[in-house]
Amino acid sequence: MPGLKPGMARIRVKDLRLRTYIGIKEEEILNKQDVLINLTFLYSATEAVRDNDIDHALNYRTITKAVIRHVEENRFALLERLTQELLDLVMGNPAVHYAEVEVDKLHALRFAESVSITLASER
Fold this sequence. Notes:
- It catalyses: 7,8-dihydroneopterin 3'-triphosphate = 7,8-dihydromonapterin 3'-triphosphate.
- This is Dihydroneopterin triphosphate 2'-epimerase.
- A hairpin with a 7-residue loop joins strand 4 (96-106) and strand 5.
- The longest helix is centred in the middle third of the chain and has 14 residues, at 60-73.
- The chain has a five-stranded mixed β-sheet with strand order 3-1-2-4-5.
- It has four helices and five strands; from the N terminus they run E-H-E-H-H-E-H-E-E.
- It is an alpha+beta fold and 123 residues long.
- Helix 3 packs antiparallel against helix 4.
- The protein has helices at 26-30, 46-51, 60-73, 79-91; strands spanning 8-22, 33-44, 75-76, 96-106, 114-122.
- It has a single domain (8-122), classed as GTP Cyclohydrolase I, domain 2.
């Protein structure tokens, strides 16, 4: 993850717990499972800080609602595909300079809390 430079802000959405169809086994195709999503994005916050104006800030609520809608309304065979689609969705906002998306598939392995994949992109 790139370091913060003056004027840049790092926003983190932590532990967004959603349910979706994820996997390739029959039971996974037929039943929704919990996933845990963490989003990190960097944007230039200079104008938002200076003006104290929401119109100059990155609206993390709008991005999070789009993530929720995408996860809940689609099916995914692979964790990699879900993670990439969410990264593409976040990077679709032109204000985002860098994004990182981590998705945990809870209880995917017998003795593990979860299995996760993290993907990142920057302009």
